[in-house]
Amino acid sequence: MATQLQPKPPVPVVGHVITDEEMGLKKGIKIQQVNFVKVIKLLTDPHSVALYERHNHALQRLIRHYSAGFLLKDLVQVFKILNVCADRSHEQPMYIKPMIEMLKLCSLPFLREKSSDETTYSQIVIESFSQLGYLMRVPSREVRIQLANTLEAIYTNNTKGLLVQDHQPTTRAYNAAMVERSDIAETLVKSLTLLENDLEVKLRLMIILQHFSSFSPINCNSMLSADAASRICSRMNDPDPSGKLLFHSIEILWNLMENGDREEMARQLNSFICVEALKDAFTQQMTNGYSHYDRQLRNDLLVLTTLAVANNPEAPFIETGYAKVLILFATFQEVRSHNALVKYLKLGTSPEDFELKKMLINVLVVLSKEPAVIPLLSEGHVILALLSFIKNNENSSQPQEWSPAQFEETQLHAMSALCTLAPLCIQDYMTCQGNTRLLLLLEWCVGKDDFAGHGNAFHGKGGRGNKRAQMRYCLHLMRSVVSLNDGEVNQDLVDQGAINQLLDILLSATRSSIEDDAIDVEMQCDMLFILSVLCESNIHRKELYGEKGVEVVLRYLRTDAKKLNRGLGHHRLMLAAVDNIWCCVIGAYINEDQFLEGQGVFLLIDLLESSTRNTHNLSLGCLTDLCENPKTVPHLMAWKGKKERTIASLLVDIWRQEETHMGVKRDENGVLIDPAVPLMGSFQEEAGIKPLPANQPSHAITDISENMRAKIYALFCKIGSEDPKGLSTEEQVTLVIIRRFLDFKEGEIWVEITSELEQENLRPVTPDQELLEMLSKSNQEMAETITEEQNELLESQRQQALLEEQELYSEIKENHKQREKSIKKWDDFVARTSNYAILKNSKGRQDVAIDDSRAKQIDNEHSFHDIDLPSLQTTTFQGRTIMVDSTPRDILDGSTLITSHTDAENNLTLSKHASIAVS
Which of 336, 316, 325 is nearest to 284 (CA)? Predict the structure, then answer.
């Protein structure tokens, strides 16, 4: 017991702690930190400023201790030391070597002790990177080369640091973000001026700028703020045996164009010196570049030129002669030239030369945005060169010629360029017989010649194994040309049979059973548009359109409405067909009659009923003009839509939809709310009435053409609006407004005139003032009258509804009376059959009724016979058919109520509630 009470001996205390480092668990180098304050004081103190040996020893010791890289927290002191060495390197070259060693250490990743150090010291890192850029001022070639190597290592993180105990290196993403926030990119661009005579350092610096601008819009804009585009472009042709200067210059300019501010880039390149430099570089590479590298560099220069022209068409490409050189190189293969630049020049079939040809064609299109280039295009015979590609394709080629696939792609590219250039140089197009070439190519496209397209690149979409790509761009080009409405061009097309040729193709397309895709629909739209332009306002051409054209548009109008929402462009095809009717059918009585005979009006109204609102305007306009033919109106009146809908009902419904879209003030029944502005929509109301010049129409005038109400009013003027059939009361309420549309519009214009005079502080003479007041009062009274008429219609409809309701209740009440009568009749029957006295009374009433029905005066000259039936057991009156209630046969064991021998032979039996005819 005593032993248990003795205290336990204390646990011995460990007198030392064994660390991970002592156990050998930590890996990597341990940094032995140096007192930077002492080093800086040694370098800057006036008493020790001349102790160069001690300075060198201290710097070497610092470099030796931080061989794994500098800490983020020490960067301020590190760059103070670097700046001191940089400032003294002019007088004492011994500082250059330590500077180089310290810059080498800066190329290693900076070290952080904690994860938060990157955020804590971010501003210090930004300023440190800026200080690195400022060190380019040191006039030492070795320092500048090492500085370039350091900057490249920092941004690309190519240098792998050593493993350091208790520290982690910064990441490449962190370094890149800090570089973007510093001004080092701008500083390096400005330092290019210091390196004009040192090609090696300049190339190293260009590589760094290329890295900076590759994927960073921030760096690009920072470089542009230092005029990087102008500085680099103007000096990219400096002597360089290796050719790397031109290459890096092009890469940097391309990066600046893609990632930087394009407007600023275009402004800097908008100088005679820069454009001249681009021209010299491209000409040199074009005429003297033979290697694969040279051809790629040449193409890059052309891409850069194209981007420069596209972003700044006003740059001095014409003044420097660069535009003329580009036109020469684009056409020298197709158009013979004696210019020395192309005398011995020949493009091969290599991929680089093929790309060059396409880019040269493309740059012509980009150059054409500047009107001053058009004469140069004509002078360089650009249209002739491009039209040379409009010919039948071949399935084989000569060894030194484009392959069939290359020719097809170039051909399609040339035709696409002609869509832009031909309208600008229309005289050259006509001189080169462009229409003839197009129609011949179109004939080849629909012919049966054996050719299978390769369908390469963007322009060859949908053309693999067929000729659709050629046909598609042939029609695009024809559409671009006819869109000019040039009389000579269009007449030339008509004279060569374009109308008949296009109609044959369309007729074949509509009769085909193959489902159309988006490209087929696009080509058919183009053909319909071309026909519309050619036939518009020309009776002779409409006659050429004739029966074949009417058949084509009728087939399009019969298109299944479900196709309009498939996303293949059938809605555009339908609109093109309606426009074709407007331009090619209306105005020629023969075509109109054939259109009416083919039930074209019914099809147009069906389209109007089933289509969306944005297509209504065109269809209504077409119907309005078609109503100028008196034969059209009976077709309109005879039309019946879904649920026996009439044309008047459809037009009123479209009117209501249009006013809802415009925001016109109406109540739920369509009655006028604001008689002062009965037709004004929300947009017109928000715009208000402002004084306008005499040659500018007011909102009330432009409103007529901007919506469909005027067309609907015109159609009602043709079909009549006084007593249309098939309209509900709400539709009749709207029809009241439609009838007075013209009067309302006239009043709205007078209101605008009055308001403009008041805003301009002009008072009309007294008679005019009285006239304006009278017109205003008249318009107000008319609107009130219309409102009263609408309310009367609604009240009449309400009374009619009440009357119908009362009739319904009366019918229900009558049905209940018949039921009560049937019950009373049954009660009377039960009483007669169960009470003999009641039966006798009923018989007496029957006899009295019979006597009362007979004549009271008896003519003694004639004999009258008694027509009473003796032993008649019935006490009620009946007709020729009576209902007899009998006991069912199965209850009577098969016996019947029929006792007559004849009836028995005829197997006549009575069922319950059987009928007997009395003769």
Answer: 325
**For residues 384 and 451, what is the distance between their CA atoms, to the nearest angstrom?**
25
Distance CA 749, CA 765 (A): 19
Strands 168-169 vs 111-112: parallel, antiparallel or unpaired: antiparallel
Which residue, among 237, 344, 234, 359, has the nearest Cα to 290 in the 3D structure?
344
Pairing of strands 111-112, 881-884: unpaired
Q: Distance between alpha carbon 705 and the CA centroid of its chain, in Å?
A: 25
At 502, give phi and psi (nearest 5°): -70, -40
Establish how many alpha carbons lie within 13 A of residue 81's alpha carbon, considering only the half-sphere containing its beta carbon: 30
Q: Residue 656: which of 733, 722, 739, 743 has the closest Cα?
A: 733
Sign of CA dihedral 491, 495, 498, 504: positive
Q: In b/e form, how buried is each residue of 98-118, taking b as 16+ CB within 10 angstroms? A: bbbbbbbbbbbbbbbeeeebb
Domain boundaries, the chain: 20-182, 270-380, 381-496, 659-807, 877-919
Query: What number of other Cβ atoms are within 10 A of residue 583's Cβ?
Result: 23
Cα radius of gyration rounded to whole Å, the chain: 50
CB-based contacts of 892, cutoff 8 Å, min separation 6 = none
Q: How far is CA 406 from CA 334, 364, 393, 542, 800, in A?
A: 16, 19, 11, 41, 79
Please choose, from the candidates 681, 686, 688, the residue with its C-alpha nearest in 3D space to the C-alpha of residue 703.
Answer: 681
Assign 38 to helix, strand or coil.
helix
Tens-place pLDDT, residues 786-815: 888 888 888 888 888 888 888 888 888 888
- Convert the pLDDT of each residue in 172-212 to its tens digit: 889 899 999 999 999 999 999 988 888 999 999 999 999 99
As to burial, measured by CB atoms within 10 angstroms (0-12 exposed, 13-18 middle, 19+ buried), residue 139 is exposed
Please give the C-alpha separations between residue 549 and each of 460, 514, 532, 580, 590, in angstroms, as whole numbers: 30, 21, 11, 9, 12
Please say whether the beta carbons of 415 and 476 come within 8 A: yes
